[in-house]
Amino acid sequence: MVQGPQKNGSVGGGGQIVAGVLAPHPPHLVYAENPPQNEPRAECGWEVLRWGYERLRKSLARKDFDVLVVHSPHWRTMTGTHFLGVDYFKGLSVDPVFPNLFRFHYDLKVDVDLSRAIHDEAQVMGLDTQMMTNPDFRVDYGTIISCHLTHPEWNKPIVAISSQGLARYFSNDVMQAVMVKLGQATRKAIEQSGKKAVLLASNSLSHRHFVVEPELPEDMSYEHIQNHSQYLWDMKILDLMKRGKGREILDLLPDFTEQAVAETDGGSLTWLLSALGEPTHPAEVHAYGSVIGTGNAVVEWAGPGQEVLS
Length: 310
Ligand code: 2X7
Ligand code: FE2
Hints:
The chain is α/β, with parallel strands linked by helices. The chain contains nine helices and ten strands. The strands form three sheets. The protein has a six-stranded mixed beta sheet with strand order 7-2-8-1-10-9, sandwiched between helices. Strand 4 and strand 5 (103-109) form a beta hairpin. Helix 3 packs across helix 6 and helix 7 packs antiparallel against helix 8 (246-259). The longest helix is centred in the middle third of the chain and has 22 residues, at 172-193. It starts with 15 loop residues before the first strand and ends in an 8-residue tail after the last strand. Fe (ii) ion binds at residues 25, 73-74, 142, 204, 263. Residues 25-27, 204, 209, 263, 291-292, 294 line the site of (3E)-3-iminooxepin-2(3H)-one.
């Protein structure tokens, strides 16, 4: 089935969002995959989520896309939204909380033209924005992990967008209002660019986690959701995603964020739902699972005007 017209209608220009993905970034998932770029070695672990990412990769392999555009809660800027503005970054990314799991040697290209186009569009819409032009900048682990798990070939450029602390400095509602505008600007710039983009919201859902790690981190006999009430919240949000209730999710997100201590506080999911035009078509939930007690789902939406997955 092909989608009809959506809210925030298309602006023309030939570009499109071919898919939007909730692409969480627990470092455990990269650790358990044992890619050559990551130093620590694992025996196994978190298979349900990793197999969900596998299904996502199979689905995206059937689509043609030029660029990954990722919004990350772990690139937190104090003033406004920042965009990577250098063609190429190479370095070592170490998770500050789990340096035993994630020491990843990255080497990535940035689509600076598209990055600047989204920046400019967001500025026109009144948002506070900046291009990040320091060539020695260390790219955050949220960006790297979501991109790696979605497309481990690293043969396509990325656009990386920072998150702000608005939820804490002001309120979830203020953060959400700004992220809705950023999503609209992102969509407009992509459509005008002529490029085909996959959008990644790099966040977990409920985010309360255990403070003690098992001796063997991948010992799955210790892994479960931190508490039942956050599980219920996650199921509520996933049910709305499966039923194509984009507007309803946005309405609930401020309460969800607060009560499930959710990683949606960075605005990534709000940005994605807004860029997708508050989707009314069902999302494909590829997987749900816990990582050190947090709730994580790999979820894919067809882009506006794209074929819906069966
Ligand atoms: O950043 C994270 C996360 N979002 C979820 C789980 C575990 C670690 O790191
Ligand atoms: Fe995180």
